[in-house]
Write a sequence for this structure.
């Protein structure tokens, strides 16, 4: 890929930060969207919840990547926090899409972050991108989130939705909270451990996003998950093996529901998601197995 000018929203987050480092290392010019006043020429002001983007800052960008949004799993899902999750994702995406559509020369591609929460609880049933949305808060949120990108797509911008699974990383995200527990010998299964977790290494997450940016023939949803989803019990055992720690502790489902409230449904729910379209497009995972993904994250 020739050096390009790429705007990134959510550049300070786990995935966004890793993506920016990868792009800069390969000589691309990265424009960061920030919520404060810009401090340098490579920053552009935006306010996702206020539906504002300084559209002039997107002029000349070949691609826009939106990875912004409050952390779904950082706290209980109160009605106020669910409203915050919805506003940040839906209004922010709409603002970016409308800003791109208004440009005389829009970017060629809009990669808008999404999530496998689209599918809801799939139990033991494996699903790919052909599956319909599930039921509940997260599926409805993802449907709105992806739908908010319509102005960009209607303006002729190739629009892609990487539906990301659980990112295996040392710092940040769900695994950022798991590593310290397992290293301390306090790790264990959650609930009965039979729920499927669809994971992806941070390395493969970034590589997949870059793949979606670079391939002009790809659009629509792409599951960004390793091709081998495992149960929580299997992942717990793998964490114990790699970190050489016991995994004797278990958190019963009622305790999780008491502590996490509605969010517990996401932790205890099963999502067996396959990256069918990503594999069909020729993408190769560097860390397709859970043990290799855990080792890469250390």
């Amino acid at each position: 890929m020739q050096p390009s000018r790429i705007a990134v929203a959510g550049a300070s987050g786990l995935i966004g930060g890793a993506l920016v480092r990868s792009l800069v290392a390969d000589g691309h010019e990265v424009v960061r969207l920030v919520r404060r006043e810009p401090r340098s020429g490579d920053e552009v002001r935006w306010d996702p919840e206020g539906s504002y983007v300084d559209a002039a800052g997107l002029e000349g960008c070949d691609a826009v990547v939106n990875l912004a949004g409050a952390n779904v799993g950082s706290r209980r899902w109160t009605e106020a926090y669910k409203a915050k999750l919805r506003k940040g994702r839906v209004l922010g995406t709409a603002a970016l899409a409308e800003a791109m559509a208004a440009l005389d020369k829009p970017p060629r591609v809009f990669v808008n972050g999404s999530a496998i929460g689209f599918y809801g609880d799939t139990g033991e049933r494996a699903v790919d991108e052909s599956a319909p949305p599930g039921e509940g808060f997260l599926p409805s949120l993802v449907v709105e989130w992806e739908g908010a990108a319509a102005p960009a797509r209607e303006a002729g911008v190739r629009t892609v939705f990487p539906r990301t699974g659980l990112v295996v990383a040392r710092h940040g995200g769900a695994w950022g909270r798991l590593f310290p527990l397992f290293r301390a010998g306090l790790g264990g299964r959650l609930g009965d451990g039979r729920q499927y977790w669809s994971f992806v290494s941070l390395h493969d997450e970034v590589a997949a996003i870059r793949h979606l940016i670079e391939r002009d023939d790809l659009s629509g949803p792409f599951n960004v998950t390793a091709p081998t989803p495992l149960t929580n019990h299997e992942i717990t055992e793998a964490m114990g093996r790699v970190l050489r720690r016991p995994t004797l502790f278990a958190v019963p489902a009622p305790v999780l529901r008491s502590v996490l409230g509605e969010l517990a449904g996401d932790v205890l729910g099963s999502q067996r998601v396959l990256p069918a379209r990503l594999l069909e497009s020729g993408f190769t995972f560097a860390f397709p197995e859970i043990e290799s993904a855990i080792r890469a994250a250390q």
